[in-house]
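Lab notebook page, bench 4
Experiment: in silico fold of construct C2
Operator: M.H.
Input chain length: 253 residues
Purpose: comparison with the prior construct
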Amino acid sequence: MAHRRQSLVPDLADLVLPRTCAGCGVPGAILCRRCAALLAEPHLATPRRFPEGFPPTVAAGAYAGPVRPAVIAFKERGRSELARPLGAALALAVAAVVAGVPEGWAAPGPMALVPVPSSAAALRTRGRDHVRELTAVAVAELRAMGVPAEEARLLRRRGRLRDSAGLSAAQRRANLAGTFVATRRPGNGLLVLVDDVVTSGATLTEAAGVLAADGRPDAPPVLAAVVAATPRAPRETGTGGQVDQLSGPGERV
């Protein structure tokens, strides 16, 4: 009986608060097919200025148009039900970035998805760890596809940061310097940093540097995958495109 009451809660909520697409606002699904399709276009993320050490990163879609309000609704406005479609998009980005790994970079252990940790202040404000929610869904999606994957909480944040709004790319990197600390050594599998959005690339670069420094000297490079990437202005494009094979060690993607 209790289970039946619990199953009625979402139905009753839909009667009181009808679902609308978090991207375009059309009544119906939490993310309509048209908006969901915008998160099925994996491509290499290309920050305006590649930070030194920026990891090879694939985004499932562009952080623009309907995708932007959908991510904000999930991240800042409590629409946790979006974890499933956004997490599935993250899994697609992970699969794409791993598919571009040359055979010489193959790793024996299961692939480890490393969520970028949020600050303590952000966790208090939101009351939840939205990146870990996305990671859990992505891991489940990858396993359903037969890909050995697991969540690995290898990083934690320390100290307090300035608000990054309005900061230049260089200022963002300086603001993040020393922010992440490794909690334990990585295993033998590929490491894929995961986050919701990449803008300047400063966060992923700082986190990847910590993981690489704490790993084996002969370990494959740290990769990254995100739900969406801020697009470059039209005059700045030309380095993105479809995911093929990632660059060799020491090369930019």
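Observations: Confidence is low (pLDDT under 50) at residues 1-15, 236-242, 247-253. Helices lie at 2-16, 33-37, 67-76, 83-99, 120-126, 130-144, 169-176, 202-214.
Next step: discuss at group meeting.
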